[in-house]
Write a structure and sequence with these properties.
heterodimer, A: mainly alpha, two-stranded antiparallel sheet, 11 helices, globular, B: mainly alpha, ABC transporter involved in vitamin B12 uptake, BtuC, two-stranded antiparallel ribbon, 13 helices, 4 strands, transmembrane (chain B), ABC_transp_permease (chain B)
């Protein structure tokens, strides 16, 4: 029973990581850009949701606002800064986006203050449902899993079945060529960046609802999303999906089960501390193993 | 060429002299606080010099050097706290006692940071480009979470030790004497970097950055060269971490955080990538900005961010690039 609940938690965590990693991997695959400020867009979405939900009283409007605000912030940042970085090396990209994090974090602190904000779930989404087998599980976490699955399906449809998807894939393969074929690359890049930003903002709003909305909430998730992208392979949405679920499951199950497993060997208190420490590094061990076996990631084409 | 080389040397000497003069002037004026600031700049400069070896000369964009900074710090803190309680750090397989002698602590800190750099580097260097950035970041983050979740040495709260470690013949508590120690080590590291980058090894390292395939064609294995540079770089940063721990008499997981990695990187970039004294100038400017901008606004990091953006977009050679009127060295 505990196992089923933790597996669902891992699934929900993985779905959130997927929303973050999808944008990162898309932006890297298409534009060749490493974007540290992705976590700031996640934070932007969360704050937009909290502010709008507080002002209007509607959680759904807040959720919509998170998408719009993060996409708008993403498009704005792309046009003002990111656009100048495509031709630069990765070092410049890392620094410029690190600088953007400072600006975003301090700007948000200035606007909203340092105290965490809390979002209130509407009655229709709160409470628990009884799953087959008699497990009580929070409805909202199931809804998040549903959102994640829907986004994954939607992205798959967008990339493989639409005209925009064809252009995105063509942009990954050869950017000069699609420019020569008459595709407005600058606009395509802005759209891809805004799309990634919107997904990050959406994830921020959902996670902000479970936990809290505060400055700096984006960075831990950003680093986990990096781990996901490294495991899955850069540029691959499928890789991001599989990697995110792997990381989500490993982290959640490791934290839930390791102390218990170790307590069969050691006494309870040392099993608890060692288990907690081990569980916190488990996903990085997973990453190291993937790197040793497949340096390009599970679904990565390039080395 | 000779002209610009001389100019670079003059700028390098001027930067170091300025740092020392600031500390001495402040000491004579009885301003211990400024001496401590200069010490901090020397320590951060040392960390930047270490990173510069991998980043500037080797082209290895490591976003995880906080790992080595933190390891150096934690080794110092752990040894010092065991020395004060008189308990051994390790009893099996051999006994390691705590220590409060800097001369004993530094090699341990550098050794531990070097070993960590060997493991992290050996794994990370299997990848390149953007993977390398993410992987080094992730490994540093792993140590960060480990430090937080390991309660033995303070966990999330960090570890304080109340007495600064000692150095034979000096009173390390006097700000100017501690500055002298840090500045001397910085000078040693600068000379070491200058010698190493001019050596056959250093030339091979820079060749591997500029054109890896050609390096292979002349019979040099870039992997071994890069790993060596990464380990040396980690050891220098580990030493800086040890000095920083002694400066504050406190270590915490913050020394291992990704923010620290970013800051060490900022020192290098602010000053100028691949310049000998670039990181020193960058670290000094960073400390200066922290105090000037920090006095103007609580949100000084936003201003720092805008300044960084401007430098990346419009002055990629950094501070020294502006002074010597040349673009990026590396």
């Amino acid at each position: 029973m505990l196992l089923a609940e933790q597996a669902l938690n891992g699934l929900q965590y993985g779905m959130m990581l997927f929303l973050m990693a999808a944008g990162l991997t898309l932006v890297f695959g298409v534009m060749g850009l490493i974007n540290l400020a992705h976590g700031s867009l996640y934070m932007t979405g969360a704050f937009a949701c909290a502010a709008v939900a507080a002002a209007t009283g509607s959680f759904w409007l807040g959720l919509a606002a998170s998408l719009v605000a993060a996409a708008a912030a993403g498009a704005l940042v792309e046009m003002a800064v990111i656009r100048r970085l495509y031709a630069r090396d990765h070092l410049d990209q890392v620094l410029a986006t690190f600088a953007l994090i400072l600006v975003f974090s301090e700007g948000t602190r200035w606007l909203f203050g340092s105290f965490p904000l809390y979002l209130k779930l509407p009655a229709s989404l709160s409470g628990a449902v009884v799953l087959p087998g008699g497990l009580h599980y929070p409805l909202f976490r199931l809804v998040i899993i549903g959102f994640g699955a829907a986004v994954a399906l939607g992205l798959w449809w967008l990339i493989t079945r639409t005209r925009l998807g064809i252009r995105i894939r063509a942009g990954e393969a050869d950017r000069e060529m699609i420019g020569a074929l008459g595709v407005d690359i600058a606009r395509l890049y802005t759209i891809v960046f805004a799309l990634g930003a919107a997904l990050a903002g959406f994830a921020g709003a959902l996670v902000g609802t479970i936990q809290s909305v505060q400055v700096g909430m984006g960075e831990p998730v950003l680093i986990l999303a990096f781990v996901v992208v490294v495991i899955g392979g850069i540029g691959s949405i499928k890789g991001a999906f599989v990697g995110a679920l792997l990381v989500g499951m490993t982290d959640t199950l490791g934290k839930a089960l390791l102390p218990g497993l170790l307590s069969r060997i050691w006494d309870a208190s040392s099993a608890n501390t060692v288990g907690a420490s081990l569980a916190s590094v488990l996903i990085y061990v997973l990453m190291a193993v993937v790197l040793i076996l497949r340096p390009q990631g599970l679904f990565g084409a390039r080395g | 060429m000779q002209q610009t080389l001389n100019r670079d040397t003059a700028v390098n000497l001027a930067i170091f002299a300025l740092l020392v003069a600031t500390a001495l002037g402040a000491h004579l004026a009885g301003n211990g606080f400024t001496v401590t600031l200069a010490t901090k700049a020397a320590i951060f400069g040392l960390a930047g010099v270490g990173l510069n070896l991998a980043l500037g000369y080797g082209g290895l964009i490591s976003f995880g050097h906080a790992a080595f900074f933190g390891i150096g710090g934690y080794i110092t803190g752990i040894l010092a706290s065991h020395a004060s309680t008189g308990t051994p750090v390790l009893s099996l397989p051999f006994t390691v006692m705590g220590s409060n002698e800097m001369l004993g602590i530094w090699p341990m800190a550098m050794l531990a940071a070097g070993l960590a750099a060997l493991v992290i580097g050996a794994l990370s260097l299997r990848t390149s480009g953007v993977y390398f950035i993410m992987v080094t970041l992730a490994f540093a983050q792993m140590l960060y979470y480990f430090a937080i979740s390991w309660p033995r040495y303070g966990g999330e709260d960090g570890l304080s030790f109340y007495v600064r470690n000692s150095f034979p013949g000096l009173n390390t508590f006097a700000p100017i004497q501690y500055f002298a120690i840090c500045a001397t080590l910085l000078a040693v590291a600068l000379v070491f970097t200058a010698v190493v980058t001019q050596s056959r090894f250093g030339l091979a390292l820079q060749a591997a950055r500029q054109n890896s395939q050609r390096t292979v064609a002349v019979g040099i294995r870039p992997y071994a060269i890069r790993l060596t540079a990464f380990v040396l770089s980690g050891m220098i940063v580990g030493l800086a971490g040890s000095l920083y721990a002694d400066l504050n008499r406190f270590v915490s997981p913050a020394m291992l955080s990704w923010h620290m990695s970013g800051e060490i990187m900022v020192f290098v970039i602010l000053g100028g990538v691949g310049r000998l004294c670039g990181p020193v100038a960058g670290a000094a400017l960073f400390i200066l900005l922290e105090h000037v901008l920090g006095g103007i606004s609580d949100y000084w990091q936003a201003l720092l961010g805008l300044l960084l953006l401007a430098i990346v977009l419009f002055a990629p050679g950094g501070l020294i690039g502006i002074v010597t009127k040349r673009g990026r060295h590396a």
